Every structure is written in structure tokens, then in C-alpha cells.
Amino acid sequence: MARVVLKNVTKVFDGQVVAVKDAQLDINDKEFIVIVGPSGCGKTTTLRMIAGLEDVTEGTISIDETIVNDIPPKNRDIAMVFQNYALYPHMSVYQNMAFGLKLRKVPKAEIEKIVEGAAEMLGIGNLLKRKPKALSGGQRQRVALGRAIVRNPKAFLFDEPLSNLDAKLRVTTRAELKALHSRLQTTSIYVTHDQAEAMTLGDRICVMYKGIIQQVAEPMEVYDRPVNKFVAGFLGTPPMNFFDGHVKVIDNKIYFVHANDAILIPEKMKRDITSYAGKQVVLGFRAENIYTEPIEGQEENCIKADVKVVEPLGDKKDVYFDSKDGAGFIANIDPHTRINVGQAVTMYLDSDKLYVFEPGDIGKNISLLNGSVMNS
Predict the structure, then answer these.
(1) Helices (H), 104-244
(2) What is the pTM (predicted TM-score) of this model?
């Protein structure tokens, strides 16, 4: 187990392509941290630099207080679990799990004890004699995990390990991974593009975009208090709704004006938003915070729209709307609410759950300037 620290880490490919820029990340001993972001954001490159599979262009990486920039992967005392499992097809499950221990010249009796213990922990004790081709995807992933566990490393590195599993198996394996970390308490760094994995697995999550770390915090802190528009839009299913507009002061009240709609900004945000009067901003609101019925005292915060698509999902209903000026948004409503395609409706916003951002894909969250965004 170990603390892993990245200081000013930059990776440049071919002298011109900046894959990771000035990354600062301090991962605590025993912590499970998830690096999440869209394809090409630099998350896997970051993981591979920690593993030693990619050189660091600038900055330092330390594991257990030792700078490892010039230490080869095999000497970093880490174990990596890959997306494609990377099992030896000609070896049995037992041989795959034992291979690394044999290279270390661990005594045969001890290898047997360690491998069998890890196999039982992972529920694959009855598969030790099988070859990988005789296993399901979920079983192969357990073998890959077992091979990492038997090494008892200082840290586990996971590179999108569940992406080859079907949706149902991903959910169950995700829960097993969380339980496994709780039991082993080994520092774990997990890379994924799947926000659900990030939210459910991580003690903290690290959101990356265009090679830059945007925010590092506990999952609900990132969800409730995103630092910028990208983070707000990336986390959440369906994604956060955004409207372009401007700030207007009317009778000493602050409004967000979008086409013919004027949304009252709550008093708690007034100090932050006032300086943006007359300027272009972006209003953000999540699908679960817009309703078919008005909230008491907030009746004026409404959007007139037409129903475009209705998606019944069992426990909820996602409804896609076109507002009167053509801007689309999504609401997550009660599944029993009667609502039909083509219907003209008025939808009501919860002003306590509004966000205001500066323009641009990483426009900062103005609502956070004085802590005015409340946790859900």
C-alpha cells in the first residue's frame, strides 16, 4: 500500500502532441481514486505513466515517497489490470495467477496457498484447471484480478477493466470490485470513461478533459458542485441541460434571460451573479430538477415547451422537449405522469438547483464563487 503523487506531470508525444499537461494529483494510501473523462482526454496516458509504460516528459511521479520516473515498471511494485485481460492462452487459470510469483521464485507451497486463497476470494476456485478460452468474459476478468491480487502490490492500476463486459455483468462486477477494495485496502487507481463506474467506485474522482485535470473531489461533491461547464455536463445521466442567455437586473432582482423566458436567480447567488449583469452566461439545470408542477413560491421560473420524445424507463421517464425558441432540454419525471409527444406544456425549474457558468466548454461555475451552490 502506498501514497501516489503526481507533480506537474506533462506528457508530450513526438515533441508536439500534448497528451497530459501539468497534472497535479495526490492519491492517499489505501484510497480508491477513479480517473474519468471522454476518449482522448489523457486518462490512460496518465495511468501508463504511473505504471512506467510511458515516459514522463516533465514533472515527477512518486510511489511510497520514492520518485519512480527512472524506475522500470517491474520494479515499481504495482499491478495492472488491463481492458483485454492479457491472459496467457496456453496456461491454466492457476498458471496465469501463479506466473508472477514463480518469476519471483516464491516457494511452490506458498504459491499454491496464495493462489488458492485469491481464487476463493474471487469465486473462481473451481476454475483453476481451465484455460482462458473455456471461461466467460466475467470469469476471465476475475482471473486478471486474481493475478494482480496475488502479487500483493503497493498499488493496483485498472485500465477500463469492465468495458468488455455486458451491462448486467458490469454492474455486478463493479460491486465486487468495491467490496474487494474494502477488504484489501490497497491503493487503487482506476481509469474509465463510464461516469457510473466513477460515481459508484471512487472515494474520489478525477475528471480530465483535453489533457488537463479539471476537478478532483468526492463523487457527490463533483456532481453537486462542478467547477466548470464541462464537469457539469460530463457527469450525470441524462447530462445537464444548458441554455445560453444573459443576466439582467429588474427591480433589484437578478434574472437569467433566455429568448422570452426570464428565470429568477435565487437570492443566495445574487452577490456572485450581479457583476455579470448584461453579459452572456450559460444557465445549467439537471433533468431531475425540472417539474411538470410549479414549486411553491417559484411559479415564475418556468419554460414553455413542446414534447419531442418520451422514453419510459420503468422507475422514471425521460422526456425530451423543444422550448419555444427551439432550444432542447431533458426532464426526468415520474413514470406515471401522463405526457404525450407533440403536447405543449409548461415546465417548472427548482431555482435552488440552478447553475450559472461563463460561456465556453470549460466556462467556470460562477455559482461557486462564494459557495452559493447548495449540495443536493
Answers:
(1) 108-122, 137-149, 167-184, 195-201, 219-224, 229-234
(2) 0.91
